[in-house]
Write a structure and sequence with these properties.
The complex is a heterodimer of chains A (218) and B (163). Chain A is globular, with a radius of gyration of 25 Å. In chain A, the strands form two sheets. Chain A has a three-stranded antiparallel sheet, with no helix packed on it. A two-stranded antiparallel ribbon of chain A has the order 4-5. In chain A, 32% of the residues are buried. With 218 residues, chain A is mainly alpha-helical. Helix content of chain A is 52%, strand content 8%. The chains are: A mainly alpha (218), B mainly alpha (163). Strand 4 of chain A pairs antiparallel with strand 1 of chain B.
């Protein structure tokens, strides 16, 4: 499996007993009922099918879905059988990664909370929000979208990604922090103004879904 | 322009952190895979024959859980597109009249968006715990941050819209 197709590859990879190729279609009954395992047809293991994922590991694999064990990550090249639910391993790099992600998200949310309190509690800044022209929000949205797409491009490079993360957090936090706590009165009906920032979130989600779909199926 | 009361904002923050804490904790502890919510239930199938076997099994059993699982990804994609175009209409609010004729309509829209982004949060967390390469934490953090912020904004809208 190449490095770029890790996001949505096979569910789990289970090695097949190579010494008994005639047994390739006979699955143990208990395993088949519990996990819904399907053995790949033999021609799919020998030649590259246009419908199958590129695989860097030896392709004598079985895809198993709905197994709650993710002991082996799919890109480390280890052939650890994952069927037994007791075979969970502790991946230190993965744990450090999750910790880094949660720390960065906490820092971003604290920054947005600070900006929100800046806009919320200081009266001069409140009046400054009202006096803003529409172009301010357009510039913020364009910066946010641009830095998001550039993040998608430069996600492997630490330095540009950190700079783009800072730009993105400031540019996305400004309209949200100032608008999400405020209300508009339109024809004596209260409208939530943060609905106007929803298209960025929706656009991001659809962009990422298309990206993952392309990486999975193409 | 007026602002929400501080009590409502604090309530929204607490509710959002409860939801996010439960979702993130569940995915981190169990390492559950929620990719099928967004990418579809045929995700782990690497060959068309496997998809055919899946369809045959579904036609023979017709279980409710399987039906709902098959529906999840297209429904979520359609709801995302609806949210996108619906929020585009807000950019031209001086042209379009307000579609919130009833109070409950707005609450239902907010609830749907909250459920949608909780699904995306679960999806993102399962990607982070299982699938992301370990050097892309900035990109992973941005997705998680957008989900949490959107959930917060719509919880705030739901709480602030009530009388």
């Amino acid at each position: 499996m190449t490095q770029d197709s890790y996001y949505a590859g096979k569910g789990e990879d289970v090695p097949v007993n190579l010494s008994a190729p005639s047994n390739q279609y006979t699955v143990p009954q208990q395993q088949q009922q519990q996990q819904g395992a399907y053995y790949a047809p033999p021609y799919a293991t020998q030649q590259a099918s246009p419908y199958s994922m590129p695989a860097a590991q030896p392709t004598y694999m079985v895809s198993v879905q709905h197994v709650d064990s993710y002991g082996s990550s799919s890109h480390d090249g280890s052939l650890v059988p994952c069927c037994a639910s007791s075979s969970r391993t502790f991946d230190l790099a993965r744990a450090v990664f999750v910790r880094n992600v949660l720390l960065i998200v906490t820092a971003q949310l604290l920054l947005v909370a600070g900006m929100s309190s800046f806009f919320y509690f200081i009266d001069d800044v409140r009046e400054f929000i009202v006096e803003q022209s529409y172009w301010t929000w357009i510039v913020a949205f364009v910066l946010e979208l641009t830095s998001l797409i550039l993040l998608l491009v430069f996600r492997k490079k630490k330095g540009p990604a950190a700079i783009l993360l800072t730009i993105f957090t400031l540019a996305s936090g400004t309209p949200r922090a100032s608008l999400s706590l405020s209300l508009y009165l339109v024809d004596s009906f209260v409208t939530h103004t943060s609905s106007r920032t929803a298209h960025i979130s929706a656009f991001n989600r659809i962009l990422l879904a298309i990206f993952l779909f392309v990486q999975t199926w193409l | 322009m007026c602002f929400y009361e501080l009590r409502i904002v604090i309530e929204a923050v607490l509710i959002t952190f409860g939801v996010v804490f439960v979702c993130v904790g569940y995915v981190v502890i169990t390492r559950a895979d929620f990719r099928w919510l967004i990418l579809g239930t045929y995700l782990a199938r690497t060959h068309l024959t496997e998809i055919a076997i899946d369809i045959a099994r579904y036609r023979s059993t017709r279980s409710l859980a399987h039906s709902l699982a098959r529906l999840a990804a297209p429904v979520i994609l359609a709801l995302s597109m609806c949210l996108l175009f619906w929020s585009f209409s807000f950019m031209f609010y001086w042209i379009y009249p307000s579609i919130y004729v009833y109070e409950w309509y707005y609450n239902v829209v907010c609830l749907i968006v909250i459920i949608l982004f909780v699904c995306y949060l679960l999806f993102d967390m399962s990607l982070i715990v299982n699938k992301y390469p370990t050097d892309e934490y900035i990109f992973a953090a941005v997705n998680l941050y957008l989900d949490i912020l959107t959930i917060f904004m719509y919880v705030l809208a739901l709480l602030g819209g009530r009388k």
